[in-house]
Design goal:
The complex is a heterodimer of chains A (138) and B (146). By secondary structure, chain A is α+β, with helices and mostly antiparallel strands. Chain A is built from four helices and five strands. In chain A, strands 1-3-4-5-2 form a five-stranded antiparallel sheet. Chain A is elongated. Chain A starts with a helix and ends with a strand. By secondary structure, chain B is an alpha+beta fold. The chains are: A alpha+beta (138), B alpha+beta (146). At the A-B interface, helix 2, helix 4 and strand 2 of A face helix 1, helix 3 and strand 2 of B. Strand 2 of chain A pairs antiparallel with strand 2 of chain B.
């Protein structure tokens, strides 16, 4: 893996990660396992009172999927920084694809790193989460 | 409006023993298929002492313990009005099952946009392991829809 990473260059595209459509079961499982029990993600009555049409995915579920995208490409021990902006709500029924591409090779704190831009995109082409990661490449 | 007196306020330190079973449940919930995250032998073969903690897992430590809930109550922010705006992790050292991590957060900033229609709360956190080594730093931005 690290031999391959040494040859990483700007423009390289990470293998995509395709997820199944978001459903209520997924949100219940993620709520319990992640510790985020905000009822807006699991209780439709609560969500409607809060002015939402229905429950919706935790932002951190999408970020965890992006984490999978990164760690299937490079060992986690090489991940130095990972940050995202939650740009839109991931709704029930959204079929998310995680995408990543290398935008820069740079020395960061004395380490040679690849900057990888990442995004979650639903089946309608809407970007829900966008961000970047710094991954040690040698 | 959130009282800006809270800027700089430290939250209670929060510790969590990272249990294998919990990490497996997290892996299942996010659909993780790499055995590294659920199979001890695979983790050890990869050079980890135990199951590694996935890149975003540590965000949940303060949720689990009710630390965030108390912060929202103190700042009088209804949970129904918050959305997660930004999140980042800086990883300094791997963390594995069996370790206890301690998260120490502070409220780094509070500001608003659109004449107060949206308020933003910035929380920064340091995560340390049993040996008091800094393993990760987190930055969270929550938005409150007024």
């Amino acid at each position: 893996m690290s031999d391959t990473l040494q040859n990483v260059k700007v423009g390289d595209v990470l293998p995509t990660l395709q997820l199944a459509a978001v459903d209520r079961t997924r949100l219940a499982l993620f709520g319990c396992a992640s510790g985020d029990l905000n009822p807006i993600h699991i209780d439709v009555d609560f969500a409607r009172k809060a002015g939402m049409p229905d429950v919706f995915a935790h932002g951190m579920l999408g970020m965890a999927w992006l984490g999978r995208l990164l760690t299937q490409w490079a060992p986690q021990s090489r991940l130095r920084h990972f940050g995202v902006r939650f740009q839109g709500i991931t709704h029930l029924g959204n079929v998310i694809t995680c995408q990543g591409w290398v935008t820069e090779i740079a020395d960061v704190n004395g380490e040679r790193c690849a900057r990888v831009e990442v995004a979650t995109v639903n089946q309608y082409g809407q970007v829900k989460i966008a961000g970047d990661a710094l991954i040690l490449i040698d | 409006m959130i009282d800006k007196k809270w800027i700089g306020h430290p939250l209670a330190a929060t510790s969590l023993l990272l249990e294998r079973g919990r990490l497996c449940a997290f892996a299942r919930a996010i659909g993780e298929t790499d055995p590294l995250y659920t199979d001890l032998a695979a983790a050890r073969d990869a050079g980890y002492a135990d199951l590694p903690v996935p890149p975003t897992f540590l965000f949940g430590v303060e949720l689990d313990a009710g630390t965030v809930e108390k912060m929202l109550a103190d700042l009088e922010i209804p949970i129904a009005r918050i959305l997660h705006a930004e999140q980042s992790f800086t990883h300094h050292k791997p963390v594995c099952a069996g370790e206890t991590v301690t998260v120490q957060s502070r409220i780094a900033d509070i500001f608003d946009k659109k004449n107060g229609a949206l308020e933003f709360l910035v929380k920064t956190s340091e995560v340390r392991n049993d040996n008091d080594e800094l393993v990760a730093e987190l930055r969270s931005v929550l938005v409150v829809r007024n």
